[in-house]
Design goal:
214 residues; 7-stranded mixed beta sheet; 37% strand; elongated; Imm33-like; Imm33-like domain-containing protein
Length: 214
Amino acid sequence: MSLQLSEFSRQIGAARVAVNAADTLVTQAAAVLDLFESHDGELVDGFSIQAGWAPLMLVERGEGRFDVAAPDFATKTPEHVGWVTDLTLALWVLNGQVTLARELPETAARPIHFADTVLCARDIEGAERLIMSRTTRRDAPDDSGWFIDVFPQPDRRREPAEFVRWPAYQTLGINKHLARALALPEGYGAIVSESRIDAIIELAGNTVAVRGPL
């Protein structure tokens, strides 16, 4: 995201905490600072808070001064995830997950961990439209319950070799809007195009719960 990067900082006790993000994310940056302010007295290098699907961690850059860092979603393997102090993407995803979940006011959001796995059809990369659905089925402890396929789906039954499991954060490299839907609860899904979410669907009856664009 090539947006103007700004620093939003606040004095919290003896610590000066800074969030670096696009200037359009001022509200989200303030919310992050509020989170850390609620832990005044614990703010040391390496202190982290879970914020939705991913942790945010303090990185000391000088005496009493800290940057907030998020996982580097460009990392290839979850075992070697690094950290970045540009929170633009992390806050964009988190804000997108929260706002999309609010489209279903009668249901509670069910965030996943950014490294939980998502079952994907191998041919989703480059597809113009995708469909994603979340069920209660769990094939592994880190299984998010999400399945992503091309839309419309093939008429034939797919073979096991046509599926692959990816860490959830790697969906950002396929279509960043997929990640926005990952906090929807079981029993729901979404139809996603290149620049937006076209609809939230309810799996029972395969009906449109919320019509986009979202």
